[in-house]
Amino acid sequence: MRANMDLNTLRVFTAVAEKGSFIGGAKALEMPTSNVSRCISQLEERLNLQLIERSTRHMKLTPAGQLLYTRVKPLLESLEQTEAELTSQQIQIKGPLRICLPNEIGPALFGTLIAEFALQHPEIEISCVTNLSGLESLRDDLDLAIIITRGQLDDSDYIARHLATFPCSVVAAPTVLARFGKPTRIEQFATLPCITTVSALKGLPWQFIKKKGGFKTVAVNGHYRVNSGEMALRAAVAGIGFAILSTQACQPWIADGRLCEVALEQPAAPLQLFAIYSNRRYLPAKTRVLIDLMQQRLGNMTEIAG
């Protein structure tokens, strides 16, 4: 039966062989001498071989021990070199960084920021695409996806870091309110003309905050579908129907009377911006630093807007 040799045991054996004593090996490894002696004994027992000849005055490797040391030493050095290289990649802010941003809001929020980041870190090779694929984009060998969602974020194997919250409102043009009246209950949107999405936000943008927490999704009469917040805003101003949009984005049109905010018993769920990546433990420094910068910049914007 083949013996199992773990790396820690081999490191202990190598340290003892190099230092010429159990005490020397123990000091090099910062381990109790008794643990080192026991580790060597267990290794010899597994191999059913004597690796070290011990006496009261000295110790030396047996032929089997010398063979093991000769073969294991370069392997351990290679592993240490690999570990050092991998650790260096985690620490250094360099190399390729592949990003996906949501259409429209992504370039508006992050275009200048990512350009500044590239200037600060010239060894970064940035590739940035814009689409609404969200989590799916991470399967295309990307490092980081910025997604915008409403309501509860779906469970997934990816790590989500919250970047910003954008309050939303249900709005409509005065002509729409004159024709259909001002709804007070969210269930009324099932029969009212609504501007919804084709696939963005999974085609379910009409979500509201429950009084006891959580979100409620309403099946609305989506007779006009777009995948663009700007298109939805323009359609609402034109009088196509009711829309649920970022309150901040609508504010100029609400201020001049071209849009009216609809007060409901349950407020519209806000839009949430998340940075999504695949693994928290081994997140490279280049990705972490960019996410930190995004979070800081968006936090400052939110404070100013507030």
From TrEMBL:
A GO MF annotation of the entry reads: sequence-specific DNA binding
Output one GO BP term. DNA-templated transcription
In the UniProt record, does the keyword Chaperone occur? no
Query: CDD domains of this UniProt entry?
Result: PBP2_CrgA_like (cd08422)
Stored InterPro entries = LysR-type_TF_proteobact-type, LysR_HTH_N, LysR_subst-bd, WH-like_DNA-bd_sf, WH_DNA-bd_sf
Which residue windows are coiled coil? none
Entry keyword set = DNA-binding, Repressor, Transcription, Transcription regulation
Q: Which Pfam families match?
A: HTH_1, LysR_substrate
Q: Which domain of life is it from?
A: Bacteria
- HTH lysR-type domain segment(s): 5-62
PANTHER family tied to this protein: HTH-TYPE TRANSCRIPTIONAL ACTIVATOR TTDR-RELATED, HTH-TYPE TRANSCRIPTIONAL REGULATOR
The family classification in the record reads:
Belongs to the LysR transcriptional regulatory family.
* Protein name, entry field: LysR family transcriptional regulator
- Source organism per entry reads Yersinia kristensenii
